[in-house]
Design brief:
Elements lengths: L4 H9 L19 E3 L2 E9 L3 H16 L6 E9 L31 H4 L6 E8 L7 H14 L4 E5 L7 H5 L16 E3 L2 E5 L6 H4 L4 H13 L6 E7 L6 H9 L2 E8 L3 H16 L4 E12 L6 E2 L6 H9 L3 E7 L1 H8 L4 H4 L4 H23 L1
Parallel strand pairs: 2-3, 4-8, 4-9, 5-7, 5-8, 9-10, 10-12
Antiparallel strand pairs: 1-2, 6-7, 10-11
Helix pairs in contact: 4-13, 7-8
The structure holds adenosine-5'-triphosphate (ATP) and magnesium ion (MG).
Adenosine-5'-triphosphate binds next to helix 4, strand 10, strand 12 and helix 11.
Length: 375
């Protein structure tokens, strides 16, 4: 029989905060999620106390794990700086917190890249991002990962879109990750990729209600408490947009580079520019821009129509001095294969779309050669 939320809370009441208060009275717990015996919750504390809380987090995880009916337990610790009542520093830019706000305690100043510990065994972590939702970021991330796989690389895929994880649907993965003896999650293997998504642990609608700092903690655990093994490239499907959560992610994940997905419309390009600015701010190199839904290709006759006036992203990339990685048509096969959990690079490996994703993959690989060769 599966464990209930109340049983989890009863167990957590036996764990004490660093000040000796039962955890359930310390006003730090997120709602507890229980799905098929998999338990997830997070503890949100002030950043200055984060160290003291780490043992509490570990205790909480182990008491929950010890409950009958618990298949796995993940307790995330999230550290956020309390808003001060004194006037705070002005924000550098509307909607984007100054980098210093997110700096973890005890970390040296300087390049964010220098502060992020590499993940052992992974040569290069790259982000697939977009300034705007719904431009095909997840579809591109999955097919790009497969394109890189086709080039002979060992590839992982991390769905960091905690607000709307779509990798379970795109890959048709229904099972939940198992834990190894060290209580690390074992990624699901699919199509030769090591795949991890918050969608494997919680239901999609639960994921939608997470607050920014909790997102970061869960992503850190999905990066570091997962047995990724040896990978040349880990492709991270980022949440859409350039708000605080995305900036924090870009700062805290040891990224070797980022790829921006845009559609050709002006509005999407403006958002793509914001994405570029965000990665620049945290010193993550932009590997290039991909124009998705670039032109319409009729599934019957193959005729091409530039319904959005295609080519905007290429011009934008030239203007901004970043590589242009390629154009992906708006095509029925790309959508239907994704919806069926069988991405187009798998369902039509010899088709024209797979070739485009492999070509984009080749350009990405060439830019990452130094990192991959050094691993
Ligand atoms: N090149 C394409 N041709 C046809 N359909 C596409 C293409 N790219 C994406 N789609 C479809 O567009 C929809 C949105 O794509 P996707 O989920 O990849 O976008 P996203 O940017 O990840 O969205 P979100 O912001 O919600 O995470 C999906 O139904 C997908 O199948
Ligand atoms: Mg998506």
């Amino acid at each position: 029989m599966s464990v209930t939320q109340q049983q989890v809370l009863d167990a957590l009441a036996g764990v004490r905060s660093p000040r000796g208060v039962p955890l359930t009275n310390a006003n730090v717990l997120s709602p507890v999620t229980v799905t098929d015996g998999k338990v997830f919750l997070s503890i949100s504390v002030d950043a200055s106390e984060a160290r003291a809380w780490e043992t509490v987090r570990a205790q909480a995880e182990s008491v929950v794990r010890a409950l009958p009916g618990v298949a796995s337990a993940m307790v995330a610790l999230t550290a956020e700086r309390k808003a001060r009542s004194a006037p705070s520093r002005p924000r550098a830019e509307a909607g984007v917190a100054p980098a210093a706000t997110h700096r973890p305690p005890h970390s040296p100043a300087g390049s964010p890249m220098a502060r992020q510990a590499e993940i052992p065994g992974i040569a290069a972590v790259i982000a697939v991002a977009s300034g705007k939702g719904g431009v095909g970021k997840s579809t591109t991330a999955v097919n790009l990962a497969l394109g890189l796989r086709d080039l002979g690389l060992r590839v992982g895929l991390l769905d960091a879109d905690i607000y709307g994880p779509s990798v379970p649907r795109l890959t048709g993965i229904r099972e939940k990750p198992e834990l190894n003896d060290e209580r690390k999650m074992i990624p699901i293997q699919r199509f030769g990729l090591a795949v991890m998504s918050i969608g494997f642990l919680v239901e999609e609608d639960t994921a939608m209600i997470w607050r920014g700092p909790m997102v970061m903690s869960a992503i850190t655990q999905m990066l570091r408490d997962v047995t990724w093994g040896t990978l040349d490239v880990l492709v991270v499907d980022m949440p859409p947009g350039t708000g605080d959560a995305q900036l924090t992610l870009a700062q805290n994940v040891p990224l070797k580079g980022a790829i921006i997905i845009s559609t050709p419309q002006d509005l999407s390009l403006i958002d793509a520019r914001r994405g570029l600015a965000m990665f620049k701010k945290v010193n993550v190199p932009v590997l290039g821009i991909v124009e998705n839904m670039s032109y319409f290709q009729c599934p019957h006759c193959g005729t091409r129509s530039d319904i959005f006036g295609h080519g905007g992203a290429r011009h934008e990339a030239e203007r901004l001095g970043v590589p242009f990685l390629g154009e992906i048509p708006l095509h029925m096969a790309i959508r239907t294969s994704s919806d069926a959990g069988n991405p187009v690079v798998v369902s039509e490996p010899d088709g024209p779309h797979a070739a485009i994703y492999r070509a984009i993959g080749a350009s990405v690989r060439d830019q990452l050669k130094g990192a991959i060769a050094a691993a």
